[in-house]
Specification:
The protein is mainly α. It has one domain: Orthogonal Bundle (Non-ribosomal Peptide Synthetase Peptidyl Carrier Protein, Chain A). The chain has 4 helices and no strands. The longest helix has 15 residues. The radius of gyration is 11 Å and the shape is globular.
Length: 78
């Protein structure tokens, strides 16, 4: 799966319009909570085949940071 599909699915997890979701989109306590983090773990595993710990995801403050974390885990550009 590619970045575009992931971003669309992540927008659904965060309950925002996909057009709003850019790399500078802020992940905060209003949209980046335990439920969305668990959903992101599943989404990342399904789409990229890697498991990322919830603690590492919780540290992400933006979508860009999340994408960098996925890229590091996969070892390939998104």
């Amino acid at each position: 799966m590619g970045k575009e599909t992931f971003m669309e699915d992540l927008a659904a997890v965060l309950e925002v319009d996909p057009d709003e979701l850019q790399e500078n989109f802020e992940l905060n306590r209003d949209n980046w909570n335990s439920l969305s983090i668990v959903s992101a773990i599943v989404l990342i595993d399904e789409q990229f085949g890697v498991a990322i710990e919830g603690d590492k995801l919780r540290e992400c403050q933006s979508v860009g940071m999340l994408l960098n974390l996925i890229q590091e885990a996969t070892g390939a550009p998104l």
